[in-house]
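Me: Here is a favour to ask of a fellow structure person. Could you put it straight underneath, so I can go through it closely?

Assistant:
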Amino acid sequence: MTTPPPAISVSGLTKCFGNLTAVDSLSLSIPHGQLFGLVGSDGAGKTTTLRILTGVLDATAGKATVLGCDCNRLEPVRCDIGYMSQRFGLYSDLTVMENIRFHADIFGVPPNQWRERAELLLGMSGLAPFIMRRAGALSGGMKQKLGLCCALIHTPRVLFLDEPTNGVDPVSRRDFWKILEKLLEEGVTIVVATAYLDEAERCHRVGLLHQGRLLSCDSPVNLKQTSDTLSPAATLEDVFISLMSEGSNTAVKRRPSPGPDSVEPAVVLSGLSRNFGNFTAVNNINLTVPKGEIFGFLGPNGAGKSTTIKILCGILEASSGTGTVAGFEINSQAEKIKENIGYMSQKFSLYEDLTVEENIAFYSGIYRLPSMEALERADWVIEMSGLTERRRAKAGELSAGWRQRLALGCALLHNPPIIFLDEPTAGVDPVNRRKFWQLIHNLARQGVTVFVTTHYMDEAEYCDRLAMIYRGELIAVGTPDELKKQNFENGLLPSLEQVFIRMIEQRDMNFQSSLDRTDISGTLLKQSS
């Protein structure tokens, strides 16, 4: 019996950008119906590989085929390939349904076929109740699922996903993977690049990329068993870090927690609320964060985290309630708050055409630092972030991990006592995430208060205390261990991710994880007419 040809075949694939070799002699084979994970450090070549396989980029050398067609001549099988890039390809001013219809038109899907397919996809994704909402008004998790719906509207045989759950909360990530499981049941071949190693554990096989080269390729079970330097309980992330860190110790060295009552508070909130018209984004929050604490703020996309942080940073006024940040009142002393905090957004707020030194000088000017102090702080930032050898490199040329540390340094230039970090490690590989958290603990050891949001439940363990927010309300506050012990069940201590999901579902009995049977046939018919 002859073996059928693979869905994807790659042999000696190479891609160079000038002197940079992004993909270096890559060879692999992916059979039909397999879920293949592509993981690697920042700049490892994952996105470049996917772009070559989807015909977006031409290879410098080597050969790659998808469904038997050469990747630079994919037109015969174009309608059999789905591709969800990191930027989704959504149109913010179009509704959910209009985005889906637009992509159906691109692929020439007849109206009777795309309506039926859209109803199935919207039900699977839980987007059925939101078909008239503009894409720009969706939460991050909903945008991710809409992007997947658009990529699937033409029923592809092969699906490529480039970090599809980057920056998405655990509930939405779980829903997303349930959709992928259904696609696998239909025989779809899926290639997913991801920075979440717990997601890679779900794949049939995983390829570990580093500097464009394939270091290892096998099932998650075999990858863990063949790593003789790790314990039997090692995770795929442990394997990844072992390969990437070349034996160096990457464990985060924690400092003692200050304890909630041991020092004076850095942040105090009482009855804090924020309304937008009839919508309550933040509802009666009471919270105290002591100086020097690493405080984690967790919640699903759209739960009210960003709104709360904007109030704490003096960007938004509270509708009701009181609060102080660094001793200043949130509504009446907003400008004083801005002078005494650091803020690092998800987008890092760097100027890519400026060098490391020029970005630092720019932010020194914004903070109005005297010349001598600006020079001293610039040297401190460069040393703290390990950018000494890259000080004259443009920010746009740095990997995500280096840009992340530069952005943190720029936020700390004026030596603020409190720093707010909004999903600072989204899309950053595990090695650089651990390095970043070591910097956070070093800052906290010096007395800096760190207020951080994250969707990585494993790194939430590095926080001294956590608050979980859902639908604008605080539903739990405590140390990671306290939250897990409160949800102790059947003799097993749950993970933080299990705690997170369980708490949300307990407070929303109508929560539909991935199946929403809302009858949308009439609306679909109206939309397509």
Notes: Residues 510-529 have pLDDT under 50 and may be disordered.
